[in-house]
Amino acid sequence: MDNQGTKIKIAVLMGGRSPEYEISLISGREVVKNLDKSKYEVLPIVISRTGKGWQLISKEKIDLVFIAMHGPYGEDGTLQGMLDFLNLPYTGSKVLASALAMDKLLFRRVLKSENIPVPRFVVVKKGEPGGRVFKDLGDPPYFIKPHNQGSSIGTSIVESKEDLDEALGLAFRYSETALVDEYIKGTEVTCGVLGNKKPEPLPLVEIIPRKSRFFDYQSKYLKGGAREIAPARISKRLTRRIKEIALVVYRLIGCRGFSRVDFILRKAKEPLVLEINTIPGLTPMSLLPKAAGAAGISYSQLLDKIIKYALE
């Protein structure tokens, strides 16, 4: 509540022009359900797959926009720029951090410039031959993903050279650029971060996929798709190291409010940064709420913190 005791009016944006439309709806509805109605007046706004629904923002007197939109047009700086233009406060990172984090290629290049460890990778543009992948990365397996999607959309593991073109074709359905990573068999962990000028890491979450060899769409969003353990079953020393790297990445990209940094551990001891999510999932199965829960922060309290950081 503000100084006058009136409720803060929050528009919760969900849906949008993204392959993650359905996941965004689940995140948005969960946010709406868990926002403390004694503090907030909540206005759910569903943006259609064609981009309709924005007019509700201009018709209402809104104090804050809670962004629960994932992927292109919601997480990549596009929406953030529009809200800045409208002079509307919003949750999460600003335009530049959102754009850098969403573009996995630019994100990797920024990290490499600061000597932050990432997997070896090759960039393949749509229409280019993929043959140099073999030269630069050696024999398969590889991990392939579009450069600007989330929720493991368009990702796959390549087991043989004959499978490369098909996997690239899948990635190119969603992007003009694909990243081909060396395949690393190792423990996946993620580190949620909360805050603005003095961000704090949450307990690490260890991810054990059950539906697939990696943490793919089904593993993330189907019940029983993965086992998530918080705090992660790794040494205190390695935990500290991963949290330190996560904070460096968070500050380097310029994140605000909340984010989640994903890692894979090579040989169970060398943390490599995979990506950062500036609007991580907020579904009941999502990792950030689980990390917050391990820190004793309820879902509603997590939302309170995200809103507080947005209004600072």
CATH superfamily of the largest domain: ATP-grasp fold, B domain
Share of helix, binned: 25-40%
- Oligomeric state, counting identical vs distinct chains: single chain
| Radius of gyration, taken over Cα atoms and rounded to an integer in Å | 19 Å
Supply the number of helical segments. Answer: 11
Unreliable stretches covering 5 or more consecutive residues? 214-222
> Which structural class do the helices and strands define?
alpha+beta
Number of structural units classed as domains: 3
| CATH class descriptor of the largest domain | Alpha Beta
Q: Which series of helices and strands comes N to C?
A: EHEHEHHHEHEEHEEEEHEHEEHH
Largest sheet: 6 strands, antiparallel
- The total of beta strands comes to 13
Cα distance, first to last residue?
A: 14 Å
Shape: globular
Strand content: 25-35%
- The name CATH uses for the topology of the largest domain is D-amino Acid Aminotransferase, Chain A, domain 1
The average pLDDT score comes to 89
Please tell me about this protein's structure.
By secondary structure, the protein is an alpha+beta fold. It contains eleven helices and 13 strands. Strands 8, 9, 10, 11, 12 and 13 form a six-stranded antiparallel beta sheet that branches. The longest helix is centred in the last third of the chain and has 18 residues, at 236-253. The protein starts with 7 loop residues before the first strand and ends with a helix. Residues 214-222 have low confidence and may be disordered.
